[in-house]
Amino acid sequence: MRSARRVLYTPERVHTLFAKMKSDLAAMHFKHLCELSDLRRELDTVRAEFEELKDVVRRRVAAEAELASLRRERQLMLALSAERDPAMPLQ
């Protein structure tokens, strides 16, 4: 027994639609893979720049510490080389 309804899609039409959908999905997948590759490349660049920035900050911190040490040393040398007035009381 066949129903009285009209057939909208033939099996060939369904296969064609599914093949097109599969093709569209494959194209979309390729597009996403390309975008992912671009984003990974950009992330690698940002990571490299971040490492450079960390190195610069480390060097700056080390230079500031060395400068503070040199200033302390200079103050110590100035204090040791200063002549004390014997008339002044010790504090």
What does this entry look like structurally?
- The chain has 91 residues and is mainly alpha-helical.
- Helices cover 78% and strands 0% of the residues.
- The protein has 1 helix and no strands.
- The longest helix has 71 residues, at 11-81.
- The radius of gyration is 39 Å and the shape is rod-shaped.
- The N and C termini lie far apart (117 Å).
- 0% of the residues are buried.
- The model has no long low-confidence stretch (mean pLDDT 93).
Return Rg in Å.
Answer: 39 Å
Count of runs of 4 or more consecutive helical residues: 1
Task: Provide the succession of SSEs.
Answer: H
Query: Helical proportion?
Result: over 70%
- Which secondary-structure class do the elements indicate? mainly alpha
Q: How does the major sheet shape up?
A: none
Uncertain segments of ≥5 residues (pLDDT<50)?
Answer: none
Strand content: under 5%
Gross geometry = rod-shaped
User: CA-to-CA gap between the ends?
Assistant: 117 Å
Mean pLDDT: 93
Quick synopsis:
The chain has 91 residues and is mostly helical. The protein is 78% helix and 0% strand. The longest helix has 71 residues, at 11-81.
List the helices and strands and how they pair.
Layout: H1 11-81
Looking at this protein, list some descriptive labels:
mainly alpha; 91 residues; rod-shaped
